[in-house]
Amino acid sequence: MRRGRSALGDRIFAGLARTAGLLILVVLAGVFVFLLIQGLPGLSVDPKEYGQGFDTFWEYVGPLLFGTIFISLLALIIAVPFAVAVALFISHYAPRKLAVPVAYVIDLLAAVPSVVFGLWGGRALSQALKPVINWLGDYLNWIPLFKGPASPNGQTALTAALVLGVMILPIITAISREVFAQTPRLNEEAAIGLGATRWEVIRLAVFPHAKSGVIAGIMLGLGRALGETMAVTMVYSSSPKYMLNIIGDTSPQTIAANIANNYAEASIDKQHVLIAAGLVLFAFTFLVNFIARWAIGRGERKFAR
Amino acid sequence: MTAVLAPSTLAKPRLPRWAPFMVAVAAIAIGGLLGLLLSWGWVAMLIVAGLIYVFGLPAWSRVLEGPRTAADRLMTNVVWGAFVVVCVPLLWLLIMVIQKGAPHITGHFLTTSMRGVFGSMEGGILHAIQGTVVVTVAATIISVPIGLMTAVYLIEYGRGSRLAKVITFLVDVMTGIPSIVAGLFALALLVMFFGPAFRAGIGGAIALALLMTPTVVRSAEEMLRLVPSDLREASYALGVPKWRTIVKVVMPTAIGGIVTGVVLAISRVIGETAPLLVTAGYNDSMNGNLFSGRMTTLPVFIFNQYKTPGATGLGTNAGDPPGYARAWAAALVLIVIVMILNLIARIIGKIFAPKTGR
Q: In Å, how far are A281, B195, B200 from A268, measured between CA atoms?
């Protein structure tokens, strides 16, 4: 009797655990399916729902996808050098006593809610950047990025890219730090034994080993930047257009910001359109994350060998 | 000059020990002087002085010590400089939030809602705090059992199986779902069953649960993996069935780490704005009902006050519109909540540090 009961309990518990695992698969598929069901009608609504004189959904989502990738890449360009440098600082340069608190501080940066970053970007950073933006508009306006005319209130795409850069820095730092720290001790010591300076050790022993890991970290940072809504929505006013100017009054809009700006007064049809745009964003970030995780997995196998 | 050149032996000459200090003084002097002459702000002075230091020391070193040491010194300076620069936004943000938010936090602010508040009336965030608590608790109730059982499956049952590998990979990918997409998913789900205008706290809870689950799975998985298999085998040897072993032996051993992971996951999603904006909407009054009516949470409150700050007052009330002050104060409250959650997670982690049995 007792034996039977425990076998039954075992079966129930194992079943529960398995169900939970399968539920994760179902939910992930469900995200896709529900967005598809609610988004597909958005592909064929009355063209006036798209606004701006766009005739088809793809004409509408094209500039948004461009804006999303454009702003995210700017954020990456700003964040990556600092993220890698700070990761090196923690893993190789900082004195032991300093490295742990610094790692904690960077984690703290990751814990600040995005809406607070948005508030800071929109009210504080934009004020401080005004002179910089004016200077860029005056002297560097031959570069398409800074074509201007410079926005008088500092709330520009450049500001947003800086805020986004700060927001994605912790994740890139965290991953890079881990792969830097995993460099085989013997490789580093061999380099030191050959008389290499610290920088040469890093260049010759650490970087080659960590390359795929750092790239994976960058891809994860990109994934986060692509989907970030608040920093972009709160910092600058945007419109769905192809343009490179990042210091003007309007700049290219991202998919996430477009959703956040329009969800409130959306008609039923517009709601379908927004969900379809969200599906495009989801597919794109899924791809980026997929590649990143694949690169990390490949890296891990390489370490194991 | 002779004092600068170290005696030449077989070794290459090195910069004297006081060289960095000298360069720093020179950099500050030049930066300050240029700043005064050209009437820059102090930020520009600091930047110029920093750049002179970062590149000045390697330049001197290049002349005296050769290119390899110079490159090393340059990179050391660059790495330290990058670290200092990265600290700036964090400190700036914290100082701004405290400076702008703290004066506005009063008993009244914490104990009233925004119902009937107009113009420059103070208003409050009680409804937003209530909404945040309700939605977050609901999200925790949904995500923790699923996340925990998935971790149990991955570690105790499915180890090495194809299904476990697929789940592990998808959980990783799930961490990267943009929060607004999670919100849209919850919206699409609810809209299908309750009509296109349906907005309620439960949608926010579903979206947050979707964002929380991967974090819970990852941390629980790691903690369960730390439980030594000796413990499990000892329990099996006593004739205890597997499920009771998991519930009575494995889980209690790992409980500290699991709770820490859950608290960290909560602190991560409590600041989410976009999914709640889309699903739960905004409301000026108290609403404790998860299943009916719009529900404000703290992040959405901040966003809303920022977007519609209201008109600036006249006379003594001139200056920033009242919404900005409320937004900063609410941001301070939110940051304090997140920091307290992080602290709790750390303390729990310390108390129940994983017992490895050695």
A: 20, 10, 17
